[in-house]
Fold this sequence. Notes:
- There is one protein chain.
- The protein is an alpha+beta fold.
- The chain has five helices and eight strands.
- It has helices spanning 25-42, 50-63, 105-111, 130-135, 167-188, and strands at 2-4, 16-18, 67-73, 77-83, 97-98, 115-117, 139-146, 153-161.
- The strands form two sheets. Strands 5-4-3-8-7-6 form a six-stranded antiparallel β-sheet, with helices on both faces.
- Strand 3 (67-73) and strand 4 form a beta hairpin.
- The chain is globular, with a radius of gyration of 16 Å.
Amino acid sequence: MMTLPYTPGASHITHRQVQAFTDDPATELAEMGTRFTRFTELGISMEGQEVLDDLAADMAAKSGFLYAMVNAFGEEQTFLGLHNPPREAGFPIVGRTMSRNHGWCPEVVQRRRGLPLPDVAASPRFQSNHVVDAIGIQSYFGEPIVDEVTGLALLTVCIIDPEPRTLRDAARVQSIVRNTTREAAGVLKIPMLPAS
Protein backbone atom coordinates (compact mmCIF):
# COMPACT_ATOMS: atom_id res chain seq x y z
CA MET A 1 0.00 0.00 0.00
CA MET A 2 1.09 3.56 -0.58
CA THR A 3 -0.22 6.89 0.62
CA LEU A 4 -1.88 9.03 -2.00
CA PRO A 5 -1.88 12.76 -1.15
CA TYR A 6 -4.58 13.73 -3.63
CA THR A 7 -8.25 13.01 -4.14
CA PRO A 8 -9.91 14.07 -7.39
CA GLY A 9 -12.55 16.72 -6.94
CA ALA A 10 -11.47 17.49 -3.39
CA SER A 11 -10.94 21.14 -2.49
CA HIS A 12 -8.32 20.14 0.04
CA ILE A 13 -5.58 17.54 0.14
CA THR A 14 -6.46 14.26 1.79
CA HIS A 15 -4.44 11.11 2.31
CA ARG A 16 -5.70 7.71 1.15
CA GLN A 17 -4.19 4.27 1.02
CA VAL A 18 -4.12 2.69 -2.44
CA GLN A 19 -2.61 -0.53 -3.70
CA ALA A 20 0.48 -0.27 -5.92
CA PHE A 21 0.64 -2.54 -8.95
CA THR A 22 4.20 -1.77 -10.06
CA ASP A 23 7.63 -2.33 -8.57
CA ASP A 24 8.16 1.45 -8.50
CA PRO A 25 5.52 2.92 -6.14
CA ALA A 26 7.10 6.41 -6.13
CA THR A 27 6.74 6.77 -9.91
CA GLU A 28 3.32 5.16 -9.77
CA LEU A 29 2.22 7.67 -7.12
CA ALA A 30 3.52 10.61 -9.17
CA GLU A 31 1.76 9.31 -12.30
CA MET A 32 -1.47 8.79 -10.35
CA GLY A 33 -1.40 12.40 -9.16
CA THR A 34 -0.83 13.56 -12.74
CA ARG A 35 -3.63 11.29 -13.95
CA PHE A 36 -6.06 12.72 -11.34
CA THR A 37 -5.14 16.27 -12.30
CA ARG A 38 -5.71 15.45 -15.95
CA PHE A 39 -9.08 13.79 -15.21
CA THR A 40 -10.13 17.02 -13.46
CA GLU A 41 -8.91 19.18 -16.35
CA LEU A 42 -10.85 17.03 -18.83
CA GLY A 43 -13.98 16.90 -16.65
CA ILE A 44 -13.83 13.10 -16.37
CA SER A 45 -15.64 11.84 -13.28
CA MET A 46 -15.18 8.35 -11.87
CA GLU A 47 -18.67 7.11 -12.64
CA GLY A 48 -20.41 5.21 -15.39
CA GLN A 49 -21.44 7.07 -18.54
CA GLU A 50 -24.24 5.81 -20.77
CA VAL A 51 -22.44 6.77 -23.98
CA LEU A 52 -19.41 4.71 -22.89
CA ASP A 53 -21.67 1.83 -21.85
CA ASP A 54 -23.04 1.94 -25.40
CA LEU A 55 -19.50 1.86 -26.85
CA ALA A 56 -18.68 -1.13 -24.63
CA ALA A 57 -21.86 -2.95 -25.70
CA ASP A 58 -21.08 -2.30 -29.37
CA MET A 59 -17.51 -3.57 -28.92
CA ALA A 60 -18.79 -6.74 -27.22
CA ALA A 61 -21.31 -7.34 -30.02
CA LYS A 62 -18.72 -6.84 -32.79
CA SER A 63 -16.16 -9.09 -31.10
CA GLY A 64 -18.49 -11.77 -29.72
CA PHE A 65 -17.08 -11.27 -26.21
CA LEU A 66 -19.26 -11.36 -23.08
CA TYR A 67 -17.64 -8.43 -21.24
CA ALA A 68 -16.33 -5.04 -22.39
CA MET A 69 -14.99 -2.07 -20.46
CA VAL A 70 -13.75 1.50 -20.75
CA ASN A 71 -11.59 1.64 -17.68
CA ALA A 72 -10.25 4.72 -15.83
CA PHE A 73 -7.20 4.21 -13.64
CA GLY A 74 -7.55 6.09 -10.37
CA GLU A 75 -7.50 4.85 -6.79
CA GLU A 76 -9.09 1.76 -8.26
CA GLN A 77 -10.08 0.69 -11.73
CA THR A 78 -13.42 2.33 -12.56
CA PHE A 79 -15.41 1.12 -15.54
CA LEU A 80 -16.79 4.33 -17.03
CA GLY A 81 -18.16 2.13 -19.80
CA LEU A 82 -19.30 -1.41 -18.99
CA HIS A 83 -21.03 -4.26 -20.76
CA ASN A 84 -21.97 -7.47 -18.93
CA PRO A 85 -23.69 -10.56 -20.32
CA PRO A 86 -27.41 -10.76 -19.54
CA ARG A 87 -28.06 -11.91 -15.95
CA GLU A 88 -30.15 -14.83 -17.17
CA ALA A 89 -27.12 -16.20 -19.07
CA GLY A 90 -25.67 -17.36 -15.74
CA PHE A 91 -22.28 -15.68 -16.04
CA PRO A 92 -20.88 -13.52 -13.21
CA ILE A 93 -21.84 -9.85 -13.34
CA VAL A 94 -18.96 -7.40 -13.04
CA GLY A 95 -19.40 -4.22 -10.99
CA ARG A 96 -18.13 -0.73 -11.87
CA THR A 97 -14.91 -0.95 -9.86
CA MET A 98 -12.04 -3.36 -9.33
CA SER A 99 -8.73 -3.32 -7.47
CA ARG A 100 -5.92 -1.51 -9.27
CA ASN A 101 -3.81 -4.67 -9.47
CA HIS A 102 -6.45 -7.11 -10.77
CA GLY A 103 -6.80 -8.11 -14.39
CA TRP A 104 -4.49 -7.27 -17.27
CA CYS A 105 -5.26 -3.56 -17.67
CA PRO A 106 -2.53 -2.60 -15.13
CA GLU A 107 -0.03 -4.13 -17.57
CA VAL A 108 -1.50 -2.08 -20.43
CA VAL A 109 -1.29 1.11 -18.34
CA GLN A 110 2.30 0.42 -17.38
CA ARG A 111 3.52 -0.52 -20.88
CA ARG A 112 1.32 2.05 -22.69
CA ARG A 113 0.73 -0.44 -25.50
CA GLY A 114 -1.99 -2.88 -26.41
CA LEU A 115 -2.05 -6.39 -25.00
CA PRO A 116 -3.73 -9.18 -26.97
CA LEU A 117 -4.14 -12.39 -24.99
CA PRO A 118 -6.28 -14.70 -27.13
CA ASP A 119 -5.56 -17.59 -24.75
CA VAL A 120 -4.34 -16.47 -21.33
CA ALA A 121 -3.50 -20.07 -20.37
CA ALA A 122 -0.90 -20.11 -23.16
CA SER A 123 1.08 -17.31 -21.48
CA PRO A 124 2.75 -18.33 -18.18
CA ARG A 125 3.20 -14.66 -17.23
CA PHE A 126 -0.51 -13.88 -17.55
CA GLN A 127 -2.28 -17.20 -16.90
CA SER A 128 -2.63 -16.71 -13.14
CA ASN A 129 -4.71 -13.69 -12.31
CA HIS A 130 -7.54 -12.75 -9.95
CA VAL A 131 -9.88 -12.30 -12.92
CA VAL A 132 -9.06 -15.80 -14.21
CA ASP A 133 -9.71 -17.25 -10.78
CA ALA A 134 -12.81 -15.21 -9.91
CA ILE A 135 -14.78 -15.33 -13.16
CA GLY A 136 -12.90 -17.78 -15.36
CA ILE A 137 -11.64 -15.39 -18.02
CA GLN A 138 -9.58 -17.06 -20.75
CA SER A 139 -9.14 -14.27 -23.31
CA TYR A 140 -8.29 -10.56 -22.98
CA PHE A 141 -7.67 -7.81 -25.51
CA GLY A 142 -6.82 -4.32 -24.25
CA GLU A 143 -5.58 -0.98 -25.56
CA PRO A 144 -4.53 2.17 -23.68
CA ILE A 145 -5.81 5.70 -24.16
CA VAL A 146 -2.47 7.50 -23.95
CA ASP A 147 -2.91 11.21 -23.34
CA GLU A 148 -0.93 13.43 -25.73
CA VAL A 149 -0.46 16.09 -23.03
CA THR A 150 0.98 13.90 -20.25
CA GLY A 151 2.18 10.83 -22.17
CA LEU A 152 0.35 8.66 -19.61
CA ALA A 153 -2.22 5.97 -20.18
CA LEU A 154 -5.28 7.57 -18.59
CA LEU A 155 -7.69 4.76 -19.43
CA THR A 156 -7.82 1.35 -21.03
CA VAL A 157 -10.41 -0.18 -23.31
CA CYS A 158 -10.72 -3.94 -23.10
CA ILE A 159 -12.80 -7.02 -23.72
CA ILE A 160 -12.68 -10.29 -21.78
CA ASP A 161 -14.34 -13.66 -22.24
CA PRO A 162 -14.39 -17.12 -20.62
CA GLU A 163 -13.55 -18.71 -23.99
CA PRO A 164 -10.04 -18.62 -25.48
CA ARG A 165 -9.70 -17.25 -29.00
CA THR A 166 -7.50 -18.39 -31.85
CA LEU A 167 -4.37 -16.58 -32.99
CA ARG A 168 -6.04 -16.39 -36.38
CA ASP A 169 -8.83 -14.21 -34.92
CA ALA A 170 -6.57 -12.08 -32.69
CA ALA A 171 -5.84 -9.31 -35.22
CA ARG A 172 -9.56 -8.82 -35.97
CA VAL A 173 -10.45 -8.62 -32.27
CA GLN A 174 -7.57 -6.28 -31.38
CA SER A 175 -8.61 -4.01 -34.26
CA ILE A 176 -12.13 -3.76 -32.80
CA VAL A 177 -10.67 -2.77 -29.42
CA ARG A 178 -8.28 -0.26 -31.02
CA ASN A 179 -11.13 1.40 -32.95
CA THR A 180 -13.26 1.61 -29.79
CA THR A 181 -10.29 3.15 -27.99
CA ARG A 182 -10.23 6.02 -30.49
CA GLU A 183 -14.01 6.47 -30.15
CA ALA A 184 -13.81 6.54 -26.33
CA ALA A 185 -10.98 9.09 -26.43
CA GLY A 186 -13.14 11.25 -28.70
CA VAL A 187 -16.12 11.05 -26.35
CA LEU A 188 -13.92 12.00 -23.39
CA LYS A 189 -12.07 14.67 -25.42
CA ILE A 190 -8.67 13.12 -24.68
CA PRO A 191 -6.05 14.04 -27.31
CA MET A 192 -4.39 10.68 -27.97
CA LEU A 193 -0.81 9.92 -28.88
CA PRO A 194 -0.67 7.75 -32.01
CA ALA A 195 -0.62 4.01 -31.28
CA SER A 196 2.86 2.50 -31.14
